[in-house]
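#dry-run=false #mode=assembly
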Amino acid sequence: MSRINDVGGMAGFPPIVEEPDEPRFHADWEAHVFALNGALIKRGVYDLDEFRDAQERLPVAEYLGSSYYERWFAAITTLLAEKGIATPAELEP
Amino acid sequence: MTPFATGDRVRTRSADPAGHTRLPRYARGATGTVVQVAGSHPLADDRARGLVVDPQPVYHVRFAARDLFGAGDHTVTVELWHDHLEGPA
Amino acid sequence: MSEDHGSSLISARVRHVEALLEARGLLADGEIDTRIDEFAAGGTPANGARVVARAWVDAGFRERLLADANAALPEVGLSMAGGLQEQRLKVVANDVDEHHVLVCTLCSCYPIALLGPSPSWYKSEAYRSRVVRDPRSVLAEFGVTLPADTRISVWDASAESRYMVLPRRPEGTAALEEAALAALVTRKGLIGTALL
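#status=ok
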């Protein structure tokens, strides 16, 4: 079934907005999410395609309502739970 | 599988798969031209399901916008695995 | 960095997951910081600009770059092997007849080794949905208006290759040396959403 990430050619999105002098990351936690994902893929906990798949499976409203790295973190925690690394409860502070 | 070659006209699969796919929806069931063979890789659609599979050819396939969207004078080149192609067009 | 309430909430969640993974032996001490530092020291658009400037001054390099970019990159001290695995690079050259523009409609594939991290607009649904269908309008929003007879070629990075645009060399730059030429190349020029 078509997923929300598959937006090529879809109607309804607004004009493109550029952010002048955009930083690499907008907050420290984004850099940590980026690095965490790289570390887990390198360790073979999951692969890049499973990571993309986990983002695509987010509920549509959550996908569209989340920032780029919020989606990444949601995918990481989804995969950690599915791979049996930790329970969903353990993944929350 | 007989690999496609540069210049071949090909048709993409029209089915809407259940899970992850790297065949974008806008390029399903469309006819395009192989403009280059882009190496060989395991199909991402399978890897996303946790499968370990053999590499297969990957192609740059060029579509006329008109054939995808019914309008437009540009082209869109999509990179597709062999399994995304139904066969010659 | 200023952080609002939502940001501090997710910040705490990320820290918690990191600590949990360290406790379970899935992250080494300092591994995250090392990765962040490596990323900060990694690709920037200056890399892509160096490739372009060399291609402008050296016709042989240009030919090799367009034929097999991975094989040509070491000539300027670069490679696509720095990430999780070596990525195939395809360089597409703009000319008077054809203008190329890059997108990843399904996610956010991008040549980080040559361009650094991608801008948010490149990852936005707005750009990803619209540029494949109506590139002329999208380019106009970036201030790029092409002659009607210039063909537009959109490349969707839907599989393993990464792409970079080789922009046209600006007029009046015949006297410039390679380093000065590289300074004219912008990130958007390398994606195809700007002319130089």
